[in-house]
Write a structure and sequence with these properties.
- It is a single chain.
- The protein is of the alpha+beta class.
- It folds into two domains: 96 residues, Nucleic acid-binding proteins (OB fold (Dihydrolipoamide Acetyltransferase, E2P)); 301 residues, BirA Bifunctional Protein, domain 2, CATH 3.30.930.10.
- The strands form three sheets. The chain has an eight-stranded mixed beta sheet with strand order 7-11-12-17-16-15-14-13. It has a five-stranded mixed barrel with strand order 2-3-4-6-5.
- The longest helix is centred in the first third of the chain and has 23 residues.
- The structure holds 4-amino-1,4-dioxobutan-2-aminium adenosine-5'-monophosphate and magnesium ion (MG).
- This is Asparagine--tRNA ligase.
């Protein structure tokens, strides 16, 4: 029996006879030849069926295959310099496994809502395939980076009683006879982790009841939240930029095929591996906007047009530092020399992708933190444990959160976050 392989390993089997479990994505036939577009979940390539090389039965079977039917294909691997993939299979035999009904996603163009309604099937197409591979690489590289930097992965709870990023976007759920919320950030728990294990990171789902429909917001998204004890914000920024450059380099190194499927310009991506990234203050950003014709004034938060304009002034991702207190959460540390801004930064991605990281140094003083919690109108009883971290050996510490889908959307150069996650959750979408 021929060796069973995956399409992705075809390069190691040139001129060998092999067998592969595949699905049909498309086909084209003439009197003497059929071209079968095949996928096996590891890659896409072409099968060529020549009438004079196979039995009549096999030639007819090939012509009758329906889109997304599954079968064992047997044949010989050849180089194919015309395709992205570089190899094809010259078919000698076909054994049907599962026939398919009319597949809703045909090779023609479909509208986005139709595709999202069929996301469970759409995942099989080339573009989602490439994006999910890049997502996987970003996840893999995240673990590699933080492991090599000496971080411990620690998992914060998902059911919580606290609201680190403000109370307006909480998903509430019944928790026996009390209310609970789905976590919007694990940060407060990661601060406890940093006091216990020095450098920690979390990687898990977070939830925000975002009522707006934008290209940058999901209601369920994945966040990586590192938190470092004995660390000030400037050192945290260095970790952030090295982390982002590491992710981009990992995708360049390990996802060439996927980048080709997406037509992503690799030279563009290479620019983002150069360090350091530029740093500007919020004050400078406001000035830049005003000069650029925006009617922004000091104290305003940035929407996506503002973030895009700022990032367009730079070739690399840019840190915008020291935002006004009024537009950032209670746990941040105020600047030493002025009382109106925090020691914090957002990292804005190039090419119009906006904020991918938010982070800050944290308030370490018990009384000041208590005051901030009260001023934010939060329920103090939920934060007693958090205040404990300032009661018992409080140290300077900093951390940040990277939105996984924001990073992927930028690296893949997608139009919308919804394509960066297998099953997106948005205000109008809980299915499939
Ligand atoms: O800026 P945010 O709100 O910061 C925090 O949650 C901090 N507690 C993080 C920390 O310091 N540990 O969110 C962090 C990142 C954003 O920069 C963005 O990339 C992403 O999370 N994000 C979203 N991604 C998708 N959909 C949404 N609705 C998002 N909201 C934030
Ligand atoms: Mg933010």
């Amino acid at each position: 029996m021929p060796k069973r392989i995956n399409i992705i390993d075809a390069k190691d089997h040139v001129d060998e006879e092999v067998q592969i479990g595949v699905w049909l994505t498309d086909k084209r036939s003439s009197g003497k030849i059929s071209f079968l577009q095949l996928r096996d979940g590891t890659a896409f390539f072409q099968g060529v069926v020549l009438k004079n090389k196979v039995s009549e039965e096999v030639f007819d079977a090939a012509k009758e295959l329906r889109q997304e039917s599954s079968f064992w294909v047997t044949g010989t691997i050849h180089e194919d310099s015309r395709s992205h993939f570089g190899y094809e299979i010259q078919v000698s035999n076909i054994e049907l496994i599962g026939d398919s009904e009319d597949f809703p996603i045909t090779p023609k163009e479909h509208g986005i809502e139709f595709l999202l309604d069929h996301r469970h099937l759409w995942l099989r197409s080339r573009k989602p395939f490439a994006i999910m591979h890049i997502r996987n690489e970003v996840i893999r590289a995240t673990y590699e980076f933080f492991n090599q930097e000496g971080f411990i992965k620690m998992d914060p709870p998902i059911l919580t009683g606290s609201a680190p990023e403000g109370t307006t976007e909480l998903f509430q759920t019944d928790y026996f006879d009390k209310d609970a919320y789905l976590s919007q950030s694990g940060q407060l728990y990661m601060e406890a982790g940093a006091m216990a294990y020095n450098k920690v990171f979390s990687f898990g789902p977070t939830f925000r009841a975002e009522k707006s429909k934008t290209r940058r917001h999901l209601t369920e998204f994945w966040m990586i939240e590192p938190e470092m004890a004995f660390m000030h914000q400037d050192e945290s920024l260095e970790i952030q930029e090295r982390y982002i450059a590491f992710l981009v380099q990992a995708v360049i190194d390990n996802c060439q095929y996927d980048l080709k499927l997406l037509d992503r310009d690799v030279d563009q991506l290479k620019k983002y591996t150069k360090l350091p990234y530029p740093r500007i203050s919020y004050d400078e950003a406001i000035e830049m906007l005003q000069k650029g014709g925006f009617d922004s004034k000091w104290g305003d938060d940035f929407g996506s047009p503002e973030e895009t304009f700022i990032s367009d002034q730079f070739e690399q991702p840019v840190f915008v530092m020291n935002y006004p207190k009024a537009i950032k959460p209670f746990y941040m540390k105020p600047a030493e020399d002025r009382d109106d801004v925090y020691v914090c930064a957002d990292l804005l991605a190039p090419e119009g992708y906006g904020e991918i990281i938010g982070g800050s140094e944290r308030e370490v003083d018990y009384d000041k933190l208590l005051d901030s919690i009260e001023k934010a109108g939060l329920d103090l009883s939920q934060y007693e444990w958090y205040l404990d971290l300032r009661r018992y050996g409080s140290v300077p510490h900093s951390g940040f959160g990277l939105g996984l889908e924001r990073a992927i959307t930028w690296i893949c150069k997608l139009d919308h976050l919804r394509e960066s996650i297998p099953f997106p959750r948005m205000i109008n979408r809980l299915r499939p």
